[in-house]
Known about the structure:
Largest sheet: 3 strands, parallel
Oligomer: single chain
Helix content: 25-40%
Strand content: 5-15%
Number of strands: 3
Amino acid sequence: MLRWALTFASTLRHTDILEAVHNLTIANHTMPDPPLTPHGEQQCRDLCDRFPFHSSIGLLVSSPLRRTIQTTLLAFEPEISRGVRYFALPEVQETSDLPCDTGSNLSVLRQDFGDRPVDLSLIPDDWDSKKGKWAADHVAVEARCREARNWLKSREEDHIVVVSHGGLLHYLTDDWTGSGKFQ
């Protein structure tokens, strides 16, 4: 279990650094599920070039928001090229209910990414509702992260990349260093 936690935390640290359209100005926070900027896409390619563990990754997981799917497809292209499974996991979606942090409807994701090697089968139709299990409150986010940790722990792969969001990663790892900017 300790080996899993150390590998998991190390991998998470490498993925939460990329620029999406909503990062450019607060006015863009009203934009639903914004994509990466061209600069963010280049950051993904740069991450791909300098990430030293491509050969050991056995599973890719991301939030189903556009920017995290794009990040995974670009930054972990070597894994995708060699057939590593890639799941979009709704439990690791962003924590707020701002439009920029609310994912697209599953039918839109299927249209946008249906021809890409991302498995959308774990996403229920209501994942983007921000209600009930998907609410943007502390209790719901903690419960989703507990469920995500259990799902990840149940996997047989030794090294799993999780591409998610800064606020969510604090809950997922229980590491609150630097969390003040999300409050």
